Amino acid sequence: MPTQTPFPYTILAEILRPQGRHGEVLCLLLTDFPEKFAERKQLILLTKDTAEIRETTLEDFWMPQGRNAGRIVLKFSGCDSIDDAEKLARLLVGVPHEARAALDEDQFFVGDLVGCEIVTENGLIGRVEDVDTSGSASPLLVVRDVSGAEVLLPLVKAYLRKVDLDSRKIEMTLPEGLVEVNRRDAKIQ
After folding, report:
1. CATH number corresponding to 9-99
2. What is the distance between the alpha carbons of residues 23 and 11, in angstroms, rounded to a whole number?
3. pLDDT tens digit sequence for 124-171
4. Helix-strand-coil percent breakdown of the chain, rounded to 5?
5. Read out DSSP for 85-138?
């Protein structure tokens, strides 16, 4: 399996759509530290493929209530209309790694797990391609296994033995049969 270059940004939010008439955007919140937006004025806007990356200045933010609770509204300098905000839809909001929040020793950024190998007592399972935070109580590691199939593994403390980001390795103890149950058909080559 090819080694993936570590992604140099920490993604904090994904812009969904305009929110208001003055260039505000509603975002899917992808950080456990939304309060840190109060300290962050310089942010990066980028496409998922990183083909477009640009710096922006955060003017304001707030956490909406009601049906949009759990999301965040951001207002960027120079984005002053609904038309301006529509052009930002689907962009990611991030910061360079060196600007992200400090974590405790036993914590890690979920995005840092992409590219890591998953190893159990039975050997190599595969490499993390993505982390899905959208559908379950805990994030799911999207792993490309050694056969080319996709395997979804719950990222829960009970299964983690060791996360070594320097060596790009995650050691896990998984319940018997979990890999087989969560394996999707191999990619057709």
Report:
1. 2.40.30.60
2. 21
3. 999 999 888 776 678 889 999 999 999 999 988 899 999 998 899 999
4. 15, 40, 45
5. HHTTTT-EEEEEGGGSPP--TT---GGGGTTPEEEETTEEEEEEEEEE-SSSSS
At 15, list the tokens. 């812009």
Q: What is the strand order of the sheet 117-120 is part of?
A: 160-164, 169-172, 117-120, 123-132, 140-145, 149-154, 183-186
Residue of higher predicted confidence among 24 and 7? 24
Tokens at residue 84, please? 């301006």
d(CA 20, CA 73) in angstroms, rounded, equals: 9
CATH fold of 110-186: SH3 type barrels. (2.30.30)
